Amino acid sequence: MIDKERAPQQRSPQQRSPQQLNRKPEEDVGPPVVEICSLWTKFGKTVIHQDLNLEIYAGEILSIVGGSGTGKTVLLRQMLGLERPSRGCVRVFGEDISEAGPEQLQRMRNHWGMLFQQGALYSALTVFDNIAQPMRELRALPEDVIRDAVLLKMDMVGLGAEHANKMPSDLSGGMTKRAALARALALEPRLLFLDEPTAGLDPDASDAFVTLIQALHRELKLTVVMVTHDLDTLFALSSRIAVLAEKHVLAVGPSRDVLRVNHPFIKQFFLGGRGQRALEVLDERDEERDEDRDEAAEEEPKE
Ligand SMILES: Nc1ncnc2c1ncn2[C@@H]1O[C@H](COP(=O)(O)OP(=O)(O)OP(=O)(O)O)[C@@H](O)[C@H]1O
């Protein structure tokens, strides 16, 4: 039987053209932490991903953007081993998660944290028990060690110990995100997945949460994979942006390079009013960085 998807097909010029932008990080970052190769996802006859490739490197914050229904969440779930692709590989820390059995999957899951947009916390458990839960599941740590670790994680995300016995329903939106982040960091992962981390937060809480993620990324040397629609969050955090369109990664690279790609979705997504405002923030950040660099150069002793 002929596999229609593998057989040569008539394609539009746009599909035939090479990927418009595929930029790796500039510095030498070693092998990818996540590698997605030739991935296809089909639900019935509907093709969501078609020959999709993406590599995510240690220490970067890689953001995935795309129109509604382009398969961002499905891709994230495939990286987490919650769904299997129809075809292709999803390697995380060098192991093919799409081939992994239940035990291997459980072991692999201990190496990453996930902040879900919805259902971030178990509503019937206190903040403390929510954060302790991944540690308790290991069945290897004594309760006093778990207690100290939970309080440390709470401190890391800016949640005072006085919130430990609160129920999730007693927390503000920002505090709920912080508690969920503390839980995602419970097992000291090297890789963190964020699904719409600032969704539902007011602008101040959103800015504060972005600042927290920046600090944790830097201090814990995390690799972060994020899905977000929010341009402020996107530009503030991303080392690189991967744009999902036409069933594959249309462009991947630093924000400025992606913005230059001439594609209708990219123009519409980034260059409307919201995009202009976010770009101004990016410009300000670049200027501040240049000024810091100039100051540092002036302070350096001359030989
Ligand atoms: N288990 C499933 N069975 C059938 N179709 C599914 C399944 N999961 C996802 N889909 C479909 O796959 C497509 C991609 O879904 P996905 O949730 O990944 O999109 P998305 O890019 O995250 O969209 P949004 O930005 O709106 O959240 C959608 O059309 C969705 O209806």
From TrEMBL:
Residues 1-29, 281-303 are annotated as: Disordered. Keywords: ATP-binding, Cell membrane, Membrane, Nucleotide-binding, Transport. Signal peptide: none annotated. Residues 9-20 have a biased composition (Low complexity). InterPro entries: AAA+_ATPase (IPR003593), ABC_transporter-like_ATP-bd (IPR003439), P-loop_NTPase (IPR027417). The keyword Manganese does not apply. GO terms for molecular function: ATP binding. Residues 34-271 form the ABC transporter domain. PANTHER family: PROTEIN TRIGALACTOSYLDIACYLGLYCEROL 3, CHLOROPLASTIC (PTHR43023). This is ABC transporter ATP-binding protein. It comes from Massilia niabensis.
